[in-house]
Amino acid sequence: MAVEVRLPNIFRPVAAGRASVRAEGATVGEVFEDLVRQYPELRASLLTPEGELHRHLNVFVNDDDIRYLGKLDAKVNDEDIVTLMPAVAGGA
Amino acid sequence: MARYDSVLDTIGNTPLVDVSELSPNPQARVLIKLEGVNPGGSVKDRAAKAMIEEAEKNGSLMPGQRILESSSGNTAAGLAMIAKVKGYPFTVVVPENVSVERVKLLRAFGAEIIFSPAAEGSNGAMRRAQALAAEHPDWWFSYQYGNPANPKAHYEGTGPEIWRDCPEVTHFVAGLGTAGTIIGVGKFLKERNPAVRVWAVQPPAGETVEGLKNLDEGFVPPVFVDNDGYSLLDRNRVVGPRESIEWARRLADVGIFAGISTGAAMAGVARCAMEVDEATIVTVSPDGGWKYLSTDVWTGDLDEVTERARHELYF
Q1: 8 Å CB contact between B60 and B19
Q2: Selecting from 3.40.50.11090, 3.30.430.20, 1.10.1740.10, 3.10.20.30, what CATH number does the domain A2-86 have?
Q3: What is this structure's pTM?
Q4: What is the ipTM of this complex?
C-alpha cells in the first residue's frame, strides 16, 4: 500500500523541506516504520521511546483520527492521505 | 418564562431545531442546538458564567478583581459581558487574526485587549495569558482550557437540555476546541445511555501552527485529558474551511444563520449520517453568523472566502 504522508511545518526540515512524502505499509504503524527508514530523525517526533504515538501528535487517515481507529494498527488503503498534525489549542 | 431579572439568567436553555432536510441519509435525523441565541452570542456564555460563578463561590475571584483569559473571541465575549454586569475589569489576549467583529464586540463590552501574533494561533495567546497571570498574581485567570467549571457547565446545562428535548439521541457531534462542550455533554449523554456515540470535529491546524517550534510545544487541553477524553470520544474528524463554509451556506438555505464552526460541525454530522443506517444525530451550533459577515462567508466567491478562512481563526 503506498500512501501520501503530509507533514506539518515543524517536520519538514528533516524531510528535505518537503510538505508531503510517499511511504508504504498496510497500517499506520507500518507507514511510520517506512517513514523512519527514509528519515530516521523523524522517529523521536512520531513515537515515544516505548513506541507509542507522541501525545502532541494527531494522525489522520484521510480525515479520520487514528486514536479512535486502532491507533498504530489503523488500516490504510492505497492512495490514502495520512496527515500528521501537531495538537494545538483551539476553541473560541 | 420569558421575563428575567438579569441578562445572565438568559444564558442556556437554547432551542434545538430539526434540520433533517439537510441530512444526506433519509434515515438519519439531524437536530442542531442554536447556542448563538445566548446573550454574548455564543455557547461560550455557559462556560464563562460557570467559571466566574464557581470562582466567586470558592473565593478565588473577589469583588473588583481583574479577570484574565486568552480567547479567539467567543469566550472573551461571554466573559466581557458577564464581567461588565458584575463589575469586574477584564483583560483578554486575542490572536490578531480573528474577525473584526469579534474585536469590536469585545470593545463594546469594555474589555482590555492584548493581541498575540497570528502565526502562534490560540497556543500563543494562551502562553501570553499564562505569562501575564504569572506577572500579575492579583488577577484572576479563568483558564478555560483547564477550568473544570467549563465542562461542568455543559454536564449540568447543555447535556441535560439535549436529553430533555431529544432522549432518542444516538449520536452527539461537536467541535473540539477547549473540549468543554464535547466532554460535558458527551459524559452526560453516555451516563444516561451508554450506546450514544460521541464524534468530535476539529479544523486542520494548518497555517495557525507556524509559530510552533517543536512538537513538545503542542497542547492538549487539560479539560480533555483530565476527563479521559480519549476514552469518551468514539471518532474525531478533521474538517477543512471549504467544507465548513459550504455547510454554513446550506444552513442559511434552511434559515439558520450560523458561524463557520457550525458549518464544520454539520460537515461532521454529514459524515456520521453516511456511516449509519438509522440515527438521531444532535449537534451544537456554537455561534451565529453575525461575527463573520465581514468575511463574506455566504456571499463571496467560495475559493476566495476559503483562502481567507485559512488565515483567520474561526473555530
Answers
A1: no
A2: 3.10.20.30
A3: 0.95
A4: 0.94
